[in-house]
Amino acid sequence: MRLTCGLTLIARGVASLRAGPPIEQTILPVVSTGGGMLLLAGLWTPIAGALVAVLELWNALSQPGDQSTTVLLGTLGAALALLGPGAWSFDARLFGWKRINIQDRSS
User: Fold this and answer.
1) Per-residue pLDDT tens for 92-104?
2) What is the distance between the alpha carbons of residues 81 and 63, in angstroms, rounded to a whole number?
3) Residue 17: pLDDT above 90?
4) How many Å apart are CA 81 and CA 78, to the nearest integer?
5) Which of 9, 68, 102 shows the shortest CA–CA distance to 1?
6) What is the spatial distance between Cα 38 and Cα 45, in angstroms, rounded to a whole number?
7) What is the pTM of this model?
8) SS (HEC) of 20-31
9) Between the CA of residue 49 and those of 5, 11, 18, 66, what are the distances in Å?
10) Second label for 34, Cα 20 to 30 Å away, from 17, 85, 97, 101?
11) How far is Cα 75 from Cα 67, in angstroms, rounded to an integer?
12) Where do the domains of the chain lie?
């Protein structure tokens, strides 16, 4: 999930920057590409996921047209922010991978 979201964000950001828009319109793709790189590496995953979710929500509300990819990326960003990093991420190597064990109530 992290790979799909990160690679898609990076590809969209690079494609948007190649079009050569004015500087005011390049801020969103640059920040989105940065969030995609952080998600791809698994670094600061909750922060990067929340950033991607907010940016994609802003993108969906501010631009007309087909928003299916934007909604999908926003949903993936929110899910990654809630799930956190996976076992193969920089966050897991730096801070340790945490596992939550839920005890049965009958015990």
Assistant:
1) 778 776 677 888 8
2) 24
3) no
4) 5
5) 9
6) 7
7) 0.76
8) CCCHHHHHHHHH
9) 10, 17, 25, 22
10) 97
11) 12
12) 2-86
